[in-house]
Amino acid sequence: MDTQHVPPRPQATKQATTSPPADYTAWRAARWNEIAGPNGKAKVVANARITAREARSIPGVPGQWSITQAGALTVAAPADDNVTVNGDVVDGTVEVPSGSSLAFDGGRVGFAGGADGFYGVVVMDDDALTRSGLSGIDTYPYDPAWVFEGEYRPAPDGRRIEVGRLTSPRTTEAILAPVDLAVTIDGTEHVLAVLEDMPGQRLIVFTDETNGSGTPEIGRWLVLPQLEPGSTLTVDLNQATLSHHHLAPDVFTCPLSPPSNHLPLRVEAGERALVRTTQ
After folding, report:
1. Whether the model pTM is above 0.90
2. CA angle 120-31-143, nearest 5°?
3. What is the pLDDT of residue 18?
């Protein structure tokens, strides 16, 4: 895949640098660790949200998972299923506290997190990374012209936005959107809805004019900090990332961009595609 320098957009006043700043280099290393490290997303073979009192299964994972009336996560399984929670074999129904470590047959491990009736269960297999052939992430060259100052603007209390989700078949979901991000690019202000698909995670899912050619058709992400409305923050589009959906489409049913989150310009910054070694 071509990773040569791509000319900056005509409006840019700065040229891309061949020596990115140290904080960006550190961020790229942390990003690769997030994908391929000990708990990397590329090793995830199951990823489920448990929010209902009715017991449900997780594809490929033993046990029946549910939420108690008090809002705690539980799993029910016979001892023969070899499900362990914090080192103890499950035989019947047990509570799974937030932060619990899980283990299953085949060397698979996992963890559970959440609170108050909203939990996530993640299961990982170290061999999944090798099977995927993933070897890197292709990016545009770092360019300081894609770094801006943004502002969080208040949204109506409890606002939710109907957003498509990458399930098969596609579904929609009303996702919490607690604030908007206002950012001015080349003299034009853009106001983008900030999603909170998981508690504590603020995320811009956006599309731009590179989608379908230089970047994926479904758009990209920008992870943002938890700040109060009225706060200013750095918006670094060099840190635009690919959706986790590209790692494992059946596992990560990520949200799509709200229609209002389209930038009518070519954002030639950030991640472009996963790089895989041919097996």
Report:
1. no
2. 135
3. 63
